[in-house]
Amino acid sequence: MPDHETLPDLPEATSLAKRRTRLSPVWIIPIIAALLGGWIVVQKILAEGPTIEISFSSAEGLEAGKTTVKYNGVDVGTVESLKVAADRQRINARVQMAPETRDWLLEDTSFWVVRPRIAGGSITGLGTLLSGSYVGMAIGKSDSQARSFTARDVPPVVAGGTPGRFFRLKAATLGSLDYGTPIYFRRIQVGQVASYSLDQDGRELTVRIFVNAPYDQFVKPETRFWQASGLDFSLSANGLNVQTESLASLLIGGLAFDTPDLNVQSEAAAAETSFELFADQAVAMKAPERGATQYVLYFDESVRGLSAGAPVTLLGLPIGEVVSVRLDAGDRKKLQVRARVLVAAYPQRFLDVLADPQELTGGKVLTPALRKSIIEQLVARGLRAQLRTGNLLTGQLYVALDYASNPASARIDWLSEPPVFPVMKGGLTDIEAKLTSILGKLERLPIDAIGSELKQSLAALGATLKNVDTLVKRWDGELTPELSATLVEARRSLAAAEGAFAAAGKTMAPGSTTLEDLRATLTEVKRAAQSMRGLTDYLERHPEALIRGKSEEGQ
């Protein structure tokens, strides 16, 4: 091989570093263990469910770690801890809920403590006497979730999902109502009172009630609600009438409702519709009055027993009612205090009691002018207002429009507002006034003067008889037989008159037995009148004495 021949370039040898993997097989086991641990933690968290906080007014019956939360009898949570709130007014409970309750915890979900409770005639929570108290739960309907809740002081009366509707009643007083108080329709229990609260202005109460289906369809916009507590009895000419919804309502109270005219095809009232709660059925079912005309009655007698709502009758048939009873001083200079009674007369009631209204109105519409003309004619014929006793047991009075016997001329004062209607004294008051007038006239009789004058007349008559007797003796034998017979007859007549006057003189003479008897009789009549007046006053104050007799205190 020649020396100048070069060898081809050979690649140079280089050292290559060995490539290592980023994850060593040694870390596989710890990573798998970590993943398993995380999965276990997640599963544990998902298995435990959410944790919530419930605020209670009292922790009575609650115990951390033991008290459970139940929904329809199924355990869905446990109270883990109890602590006093920062304001020291309430107790905060930390509750661990079950996983399935995650979607149940809404803003209007409610909780309460279940204990033995008596309300509305029913007893609930008797099972807790052995198992202990627990927290009840009702799922709400809100779209927003929550984790903090305030427990109810009382459990809900109506369970969630119960078919029916809630309504609201406005009442002046609560009466005997309570949670769970029954509600009746035609004496069938159809619902109960759910809750009640005092309005912010403090003037009325709002009672929330629930009427079960299908009875809720009978609650119409025209429906009337009333208190059905206790007994409703009335004493009339037909006897004693007693009404009550049920024995339960007699003991624990209740509500009832009805619609005045069910034939009216109206839709059922919407949920949460507000109604007025009346005191009794008679007031609730009374037809609404329209076009009432008010009058003022002035009485110079006692109106004790007359109150607002008392009936106003025309010849015994109701046509109105008393609106108010007040006192009126009248003329300030005379200062004549008298009773002022404001009454309301309803034209429709007046027409309802007429057998033939067309005959009175002449087929015309009863306009205010025609009504005024009819009333003026009735007053001109003697129609007056009078106080009468409606019930001797209670002493209640009412206003009666009736015709007076020999009435004095009177007219309605249309210039006053309201018009003033003429009145006459009540029957008992009129009798007392007449007795007092008779006694006054008898006391004013000059009995002593009449006796003295009679005595003088008897003395003059005696002298006259003596003169006649002297003339008869003087002219005896000279007079004609006819004249003599006439004188004898005159003498006999005068003697008889003298005897009569003498007897009358003895009778009317001061100190005589007859005069004393007459005075004693007048005194007894006066005492009888006073006793009658005292008896009337006592019966007005104690009408029950007609049945039970006079009390020991009264005796």
Automatic annotation (TrEMBL):
It comes from the Bacteria. The keyword Transmembrane applies. It holds the Pfam family MlaD. Its main location: membrane. Residues 49-136, 167-222, 293-403 form the Mce/MlaD domain. It is found in: Cell inner membrane. The chain crosses the membrane at residues 23-42. Coiled coil: none annotated. Keywords: Cell inner membrane, Cell membrane, Membrane, Transmembrane, Transmembrane helix. One of its GO terms (cellular component) is plasma membrane. This is Mammalian cell entry related domain protein. It comes from Accumulibacter regalis.
